[in-house]
Structure prediction request, 336 residues.
Amino acid sequence: MVIFYMFNQEQWNQLLAQDERGLQERIKTACKRHTSIDLKGAKLQLIHIQMISEILQENKTLTSLNLDSNNIDSEGAESIAKALIKNKTLTTLHLGLNNIGDKGAKSIIQALIENQALISLDMSGNHIGCDGISNITDLLENNKTITTLDLYCNNIGVQGAKRIAQALENNKTLTSLNIGLNNIGDEGAKNIAQGLENNKNLTSLNINYNNIGNKGAKSIAHALEKNYTLTFLDLYFNPIDDEGIKSIAQAIAENSSLTFLNLGANNIHDEGAESIIQALKTNRTLTALKLDSNHIGYEEQAKIEQALERNIHVVSFFHYKGFIGVLKKMLSKFGI
Prediction:
């Protein structure tokens, strides 16, 4: 049985050429036959979203639906929200790049407070502000199924980060959170860090492109000293310099859970690199470290290479210079 179906543009155009009833029947048939349907960039209109909503309210087959890049706006989001209240089988929903805004986001989140089936939700790139996630705390405190939440490239800001942090303290199911490119700054990072200190299930956190400086880095570092479940942390493209990196380094020297750390495109110089070298001497869990697009000199790069030779646990190292030499040395450890 075919379990995945993606409409190409020609097929979708053929569907649109049918009358309204014929179109609805074809979509309904596709949803019954397949467990995953991809309508990304299909130029859906509101009437099509309303059809899909009606079908989802009765459908018991579909588990994954991709509606990315369709500009469904808040009205379309409200239609999808109605379906989510009744649907019991959909587990993955992509709504990225749809201009749903605060009003649409509120509708989706409110529906998910009642829905206990959805596991993964992508609402990235939707012009969602703090007001749009005002009920996120209720969602993450009451919903028992969502494990993955992607809010990348919105504008939740400091207050939005605060609401998410409050939810993290009590949530028992979320394992992956992406709030990169949301302008949370140092204060927002501080809030998220406080949520991390008490959270016992989040394993992946993306807070890249968030204008997090040294103060925010120190807050995150403090959380890492207390949190033992986070394995993936992305801090790419934040203005963290050597002062903040020293705090991060001290934390990873003692942390026993983090396996992936992205510090690329920050403002790390030789002094910060040296602190990372010292951390690698004692850390035994980190397996991937990303340091590209910083300001680390050749001498410190060589020292990092030496530290990696001693630390057999780090099997992946990314740096814009000296990568090939480091890679060869790492592979030789494993006889490759």
Confidence is low (pLDDT under 50) at residues 320-324. The two ends are 41 Å apart (CA to CA).
